[in-house]
Specification:
mainly alpha, 0% strand, globular, 8 helices
Length: 162
């Protein structure tokens, strides 16, 4: 049995709701509830792309990923100091890699969907940009764990205000 057949068979056999409509299988439900990249503003999409390039650099060890991050930031309109923006995104990734109990999951830079980790990072940026400090610290605590949020909060703020 092939993998695609297995997924389709699982999704096709989803139970029906009381109204007779088929319920989404867990995979379809997870994909349907996550926002895609188009639901964010230009700065958030730029930050997400940088985080993805940097995540790919750590995952693969390829220096091309760093070059792509710098090039992408340089070509973005309205960014006065692109090296600083890349450095701040890298600082956030480094802190999260150190403080989290598990690895971050980044999608490829061209992907329209967001991983769960990316969606959390976008929430952090959305809260940090209008300067909602109490809410930001609470969300950062959920991402990295209680007692570890100081450095991560500073990194999110630095990136959000770049």
């Amino acid at each position: 049995m092939t993998r695609s057949f297995t997924k389709r068979a699982i999704c096709d056999s989803a139970p029906a709701s009381d109204a007779g409509e088929p319920l989404l299988c867990p995979l379809q439900a997870a994909l349907a509830t996550r926002p895609d990249i188009d639901s964010y503003d230009d700065f958030s999409r730029l930050a997400l792309a940088l985080l993805r390039f940097i995540g790919a650099a750590y995952a693969t060890g390829a220096s091309d990923c760093w070059e792509a991050a710098y090039r992408f930031a340089e070509e973005a309109p309205g960014i006065a100091d692109s090296p600083l923006l890349v450095a701040r995104a890298a600082a956030l990734v480094r802190i999260l890699r150190k403080e989290r109990p598990c690895e971050l999951c980044f999608m490829p830079p061209s992907c329209r969907r967001l991983s769960k980790d990316e969606a959390e990072l976008m929430r952090l940026l959305a809260v940090a940009r209008p300067k909602q400090p109490g809410e930001l610290e609470s969300l950062v605590g959920q991402v990295v764990g209680s007692g570890k949020e100081d450095a991560a909060t500073r990194a999110v703020n630095a990136l959000a205000l770049c």
